[in-house]
From TrEMBL:
InterPro entries: NADH-Q_OxRdtase_suN/2 (IPR010096), ND/Mrp_TM (IPR001750). The keyword Cytoplasm does not apply. This is NADH-quinone oxidoreductase subunit N. GO terms for biological process: ATP synthesis coupled electron transport. NDH-1 shuttles electrons from NADH, via FMN and iron-sulfur (Fe-S) centers, to quinones in the respiratory chain. The immediate electron acceptor for the enzyme in this species is believed to be ubiquinone. Couples the redox reaction to proton translocation (for every two electrons transferred, four hydrogen ions are translocated across the cytoplasmic membrane), and thus conserves the redox energy in a proton gradient. It catalyses: a quinone + NADH + 5 H(+)(in) = a quinol + NAD(+) + 4 H(+)(out). Keywords: Cell membrane, Membrane, NAD, Quinone, Translocase, Transmembrane, Transmembrane helix, Transport, Ubiquinone. The chain crosses the membrane at residues 6-30, 37-58, 78-97, 109-128, 134-153, 165-187, 207-230, 242-261, 273-294, 301-323, 329-349, 372-394, 406-427, 448-469. GO terms for molecular function: NADH dehydrogenase (quinone) (non-electrogenic) activity; NADH dehydrogenase (ubiquinone) activity; quinone binding. It comes from Aurantiacibacter gangjinensis. It is a multi-pass membrane protein. Belongs to the complex I subunit 2 family.
Length: 489
């Protein structure tokens, strides 16, 4: 095994690991007064990792040269595409966190350190080429995420969110471990390539049970129905920057991991898992759409919106081909931008004393009192609903197109019909902002980073985003092509 080549392939992960350890020491020895510096240095570390990963995505790295440490780790274009989204979302969460944490009297350097280690876990997840690597990355991310959810120690809602996330996360990890042990027992190996070869002649009953439990454990991590029950409570109770982080970066990592496991490890038996994925996709779309209708808290509504969007992303995975994987990655990129923009807009909902407001009723008449914020939220809500000409429409279009080309006409038709239902609660927010009498409760001003992020996200999901169709599509195609898929033609 060539260790020098392996260490070159994991350079982004090494940057994050070393940065996290150094910042942890700085936090311990300097104390809370280092919070600002640690946040800035953490963003710099994420930027450095982004720069190291970008060439891998641009050149479509694939094949044996991307394997490291006896084939446990795969640094291919698919992993690189996911890592770019993860680094961008993690950096965004760090950029908007200081003001929120300061207002909550919880501005501590550990927050940035936890985000760095969670991001490191996500990088390992998307590059996993073995069940052992998969679990190491998943747990590293999860352990940091549990603490981030309960970061506001004196806040009852935050503590409750952390506890619920921990208990249900432990349950999901147990389900995943059981599935992994069954898969290992009946396949005789933990490597994705070995599993693919072991099941190439057909699935035994034990292997089928192993596959089912592995997919169930991963479904929890992406908050796909029927394993979505934790999402609304955790999203509502966790600090808003943490909620933004949960809704973007870990979701990208878990979906990319699910795609790699499905298409690489179990790719030769696509018909076995396609039924599970299609069921989860449709159920997520319906539950996400119907569950959001009666919500009065904007963060809970966005939680159900997240579940709904996961359903659309899973339609791309259900296709089970490179075209479907490419469509899934395009949707995932657009979804990440829309999610970051939406939560930044929520963080700008502050009263005159700087307290965070989360009620949808607080948005009443926002077009009169805060027109810039209202128009940005209108663009984001319509894009999440998939209304043209906003860029969110393109994400839905490509996954439905992939489904139609794969002759999954019923799945595409049901998805399109359900997306119309889901548009109701997005339009309800717009109605409250533009047609209700002003509540005039949102009076606090945001700082420059918040407005800059909101402006960038709004521009990217506007019709100007269609200028990115070519480059984004090419990156997604190369990412999908780098997957070592064994899928029947």
């Amino acid at each position: 095994m060539d260790y020098s080549a392996s260490f070159q392939l994991i350079a982004p992960e090494l940057v994050l690991a070393v940065s996290g350890l150094i910042l942890l020491l700085v936090s311990a020895f300097v104390g809370d007064k280092s919070a600002r510096a640690v946040h800035i240095l953490a963003v710099v570390a994420l930027g450095a990792a982004f720069a190291l990963v970008l060439p891998v995505a641009l050149y479509g790295a694939a094949g044996p040269d991307t394997l490291a440490f006896a084939d446990l780790f795969r640094a291919d274009a698919f992993a690189a595409f996911a890592k770019l989204l993860i680094f961008a979302a993690s950096a965004a969460a760090l950029i908007v966190a200081p003001r929120f944490l300061s207002a909550a009297a919880a501005k501590r350097p550990e927050y940035a350190v936890l985000v760095i280690f969670a991001t490191l876990g996500m990088c390992i997840m998307v590059s996993a080429n073995d069940l052992i690597t998969l679990y190491m990355g998943l747990e590293l991310n999860s352990l940091a995420a549990y603490v981030l959810a309960a970061f506001l120690r004196d806040n009852v809602r935050s503590a409750e969110a952390g506890l619920k996330y921990f208990v249900l996360g432990a349950l999901a990890s147990g389900i995943l471990l059981f599935g992994m042990s069954l898969t290992y027992g009946f396949a005789g190996t933990t490597s994705f390539e070995g599993i693919a070869l072991a099941i190439s002649g057909g699935l035994t009953t034990g292997q089928l049970f192993g596959l089912t439990f592995v997919l169930a454990g991963l479904a929890f991590k992406i908050s796909a129905a029927p394993f979505h029950m934790w999402t609304p409570d955790v999203y509502e109770g966790a600090p808003t920057p943490t909620t933004m982080f949960f809704a973007s970066a870990p979701k990208v990592a878990a979906i990319a991991l699910l795609a790699r496991v499905s298409l690489e490890a179990f790719g030769s038996q696509a018909l076995a898992w396609q039924q599970i994925v299609i069921f989860a996709a449709l159920l997520s779309i319906v539950i996400g759409a119907l569950g959001a209708i009666g919500q009065t808290n904007i963060k809970r509504l966005l939680a159900f919106s997240s579940i709904n969007n996961v359903g659309f992303i899973l339609i791309g995975l259900a296709v089970g081909t490179a075209a479907g994987a490419s469509a899934m990655m395009v949707y995932l990129a657009i979804y990440t931008v829309m999610t970051i923009g939406s939560f930044v807009a929520v963080m700008l909902m502050r009263d005159a004393d700087g307290n965070q407001l989360e009620g949808i009723s607080d948005l009443a008449g926002l077009s009169v009192t805060r027109p810039v914020l209202a128009w940005c939220m209108l663009a984001l809500m319509f894009s999440l609903a998939g209304i043209p000409p906003l860029f969110g429409f393109w994400g839905k279009f490509v996954v439905f197109q992939a489904a139609v080309e794969a002759d999954l006409l019923a799945l595409a038709a049901i998805g399109i019909a359900a997306s119309v239902i889901g548009a109701f609660y997005y339009i309800k927010i717009v109605k409250v902002m533009f047609f209700d009498e002003p509540a005039d409760t949102i009076k606090g001003d945001g700082d420059t980073p918040h407005w800059a992020l909101l402006a960038i996200c709004t521009l990217l999901i506007s019709p100007l985003g269609y200028l990115l169709i070519g480059p984004l599509g090419n990156l997604a195609d190369m990412a999908a092509a780098s997957l070592a898929m064994i899928v029947p033609a």
